[in-house]
Structures are given as structure tokens and as C-alpha cells.
């Protein structure tokens, strides 16, 4: 009898993909919807749209009341992927510099399979000269094993009849094909392919950005009513997220899969949404809450207790250290973020006291707008102090001795960060 056989068998099991140690690692699915503020979700008090899946995820997981993005898409995308403030690495609209290290690099180096689907917009706008686009990044070089993306090299349609880059090859689909279905199915296919290995899926959704057009579930596929179409797009976004959540159950990996859902910035200004009797006008591009206050829902059955609500501050640099802690590794590069993983596990953690936002989406023109804030107070780089809790539209600038302590505390946080960022070029 070969007494070494049991030991060799155990070793083979340990080394086999998806078995023993492999199945203990936490899968990560990071979902970022496009152009949707917190007011659009039922879980946050929104009453205009149907979001049953996300509402249930919040009910059975954790909802953050104070999550903030940058006011425009590309800055938020660069920030969430690198864990660094835009003042350190953002240099042009639609560009993620290819020298940056991303959360995908971090998880890939930790042995994770990685994939991305949805919207890229990080290689550089089509009209940029080659010298600029050469500084931008392609998904295959930024830590992703597989990709299915709109707007890598060119834009085209993101919805009906989309142009999609799939693993480096641009494919044009017919007008009966709906892009969001393609992006979502690509990730579901990767979940099935990777189910026995730890994986990281990043889903920067194309929904619910304009143009506001009907979805496959719309009653009137010829509707020109943008407000109605927007509502249909929100419902379809919710449905697609539900399909991903359902797939984790079907594959038996729900309890070891952390799903985080947020949005890249506020809703477009042409959209009006209700929170009961209150009407919220979209504020994309603005530094007010209407442009920066986004949803953040965390869901992992068996790990994140149901019904949790956090008032801790969270911003996009925090995702990188949070995911690093979730998988038991360290961030590949310096980070401006703080992990909120302890809060997901019901612990106090080390919540941040303030967040810093550097808003200069097009550094080739104009000037940056900078602010720090906590849950209530916001101080701009020009010295303007606002009580956001009681003045959400920021119509009044506060002066006087009664605000000295608040101002001093926020100014100290502002002074800790650089005041000047970068620019790849300037237009004449």
C-alpha cells in the first residue's frame, strides 16, 4: 500500500482550481451605473422609478447615506479605478493614463480572474491627436483579462445597434441588438466560466446616460418622451443588476461574492425626479449634492447583515483599499482612500472625517473647483462655506465668528491635499 497516496491526493485537491483554498476567496462584483443620483432609488426615498432589485439588496444588505462621487463621469472613473484623488492623476477628459495601476491590476496580481463590460471612455476622445491618445489606456493593459466595452477607440451607439469592442476587436451589431444586454450577458458568461476560481467583475454600465431612448421592455418602442424613457432605463438597469445577482445564486457562489453598486455622478439636469412631494432636479456637472451624492449599496448574504444603514462618509478613492482588505492583500499603489470593509461587517472601522473633491473635468480650459466636506458642512477652495444639510442647493455662503471652528477644521483638511493638478495639453 502506498502510504503517500492520501497526502498526494490532499495536495492535488488543494492545488486544483476552484477547490479548497480557492473557493474561500471573496469574489468581487463592482457595478457603477452612469448618470444617476441617489434620488432615483426607492431605497433612498425615490418615488418616481421602479428599482425593486436594488431596494431589496439594500434591505438585505447595507446602504450608505453619504457616498459621494465627482460631478462628471471620467473623473469618477479614474478615481474609482486608481484609488487616488483626481488632483494626483487626472489630466484630460476621457483619459486614464496608461502609467496608472488599477484595482484590476491589484486583483489580477492576487490571483483573480478579471473582466470588464459596459462603458470604457478612458483611451481618449476620437478628435484628440495621437500624441494624447497614446497616453490613454486600453482595457487589456489595465488589468482586465477579458472585456466587452462601448467607446474604447470610437463611440457610436451604446444602446440600439451598438459598436462594441470585445477583447480588442470592434464589432458593429444590428439595430435590433440592445447594447446593455450584451454587456450584462458577457459578465454572466464570465461568472459561469470563472465560478470555480476567484474573480473580479467590473460593470461600468452604459445605462442610464442619455440619449434617453426606449428599452426592450418599453411599451412604446418609438417613444420620444425623455422623462418616460429615463424611467424605463432605470427599471431596465435594475433588471440587469438583478440578473447578475440571480446568477450568483444559480452558481452557488452568492455567499462568497461581494456586490457593490454605485453611480458615477448625479442625474442629468433635464430629468426631474420625486422623493415624495419633493422634486429633485438632476445636477450632473454641478458640485452640489445633485451632482455628487450617489447611492452605494453593499450586498453579500451571510457576511453583510440585513438592514444596515451607514452615515459614514465614503468617496471613490475608498473602493481600492476596501477591495484590497476584502481579498486580504494590500493596494498596489498609494491611495487617498480608507477602507469601509469593517463597516460592512458590522464594525466601527476607521471612518473618514472629510472627503476631498478636485473637480476639473477638462484641464485644458477653465480652472479647478475644489472642496472638502463632511456630512453637513462644505468648504470650497475659494473660502466659501455652506451648510449642505440646511441649504442643499448651496444658495447661501456662511460668514461670521460662529463658523470659525468649522471653517478651521475643514481648511486643515483642504490644506493636506495639493491644490494643483495635471493637464496633458491646453487648447489655444
Describe the structure concisely:
With 428 residues, this protein is α/β, with parallel strands linked by helices. 27% of the residues lie in helices and 20% in strands.
What keyword list fits this structure?
428 residues; alpha/beta; Alkaline Phosphatase, subunit A; 2 domains; 11-stranded mixed β-sheet; 4-stranded antiparallel β-sheet; 17 strands; globular; disordered N terminus
- Count of the separate structural domains: 2
How many helical stretches?
12
The low-confidence runs, each spanning 5 or more residues with pLDDT under 50, are 1-23
Which word captures the global form? globular
Instruction: Tell me what portion of residues adopts beta-strand conformation.
Output: 15-25%
Helix content range: 25-40%
Global mean pLDDT: 92
Structure class: alpha/beta
CATH top level assignment of the largest domain: Alpha Beta
Helix and strand pattern: HEHEHHHEHEEEHEHEEEHEEEHHEEEEH
- Radius of gyration over all CA atoms, rounded: 22 Å
Largest sheet: 11 strands, mixed
At the fourth CATH level, what is the homologous superfamily of the largest domain? Alkaline Phosphatase, subunit A
What gap, in angstroms, lies between the N and C termini? 83 Å
CATH architecture of the largest domain, by name, is 3-Layer(aba) Sandwich
Tally of strands: 17
Find the CATH topology of the largest domain.
Alkaline Phosphatase, subunit A
